Amino acid sequence: MIVLKTSRELKIMREAGRIAANALKLAGAAVEPGVSTWEIDRIVRRYIEEQGAKPTFLGYGGFPASACVSVNNVVIHGIPSKKQLIKEGDIVSIDVGATYDGYVGDNAWTFPCGKVSAEAQRLLDVTRESLYEGIQKALAGNRIGDIGSAIQRYVEARGYSVVRDFVGHGVGAKMHEDPSVPNYGTPGRGVRLLPGMTIAIEPMINQGVKEVKTLEDGWTTVTADGKLSAHFEKSIAVTPDGPVILTEPD
Predict the structure, then answer these.
(1) Residue whose C-alpha is closest to residue 167's, from 194, 134, 195
(2) Could you read off the pLDDT of 180-227 as tens digits, one per residue?
């Protein structure tokens, strides 16, 4: 069931989104050689709790941390660890959710550590731009397929592949609500977008093949061919005046 949000609910979601976005911004600023992924997680949790919110991911389905920190060929759901130190040239995807007054803000970004290869930077640039291609299609009256198609066309035209096993989603009182928001699709197909819908658009784009595999921990998902992956995400609201990004930092 798709839940259309009231103006009051959207106001709360903006605050949840602000907290999540600020936590993500702080996490990204900490991406430096020698910093552990555990330290990134600690920064996220401390900020969210200081704001009177809760880290949405902590304990979600048994996930043991407040942020997903996914390095290089890890697509999503990387578990932070004191043993994993970020290195110069790594790309680090950080996914953060904050629950405030019963509503969720969910966002992700992939950060370069120091100087990265030209190939890695191009993947980051294309994935980031594909996110905004998708957001531009989140117009009242359009359909879910318009968003996914815009993302898919943009990245595939540039030689990259779209992960199929994981998709974007509705967001609100729960982190995952209807509808699913794939990063691929056919224009004019799928659920019609209506004012009051809130969705998380999150392209997960691979340098090589689209296939992924989940490791024995049940969470960490990596590219099947070991090549790089990038992940960018914003929570947005569909409004009569166009899409509004809910996860914007101060």
Answers:
(1) 134
(2) 999 999 999 999 999 999 999 999 999 999 999 999 999 999 999 999
Strand residues in 19-162 grouped as ranges (E): 54-55, 67-71, 74-76, 91-100, 103-112, 161-162
Number of Cβ within a 10 Å radius of residue 180: 15
79 by Cβ neighbours in 10 Å (0-12 / 13-18 / 19+) ranks as buried
Q: Domains along the chain?
A: 7-242 (3.90.230.10)
Q: Would the pTM of this model clear 0.90, i.e. be above it?
A: yes
Residue with token string 């911004």 = 25
pLDDT in tens, 163-173: 999 999 999 99
* The two three-digit tokens of residue 132, written as one number: 């905004």
Question: How does the average pLDDT of the chain come out, rounded?
Answer: 98
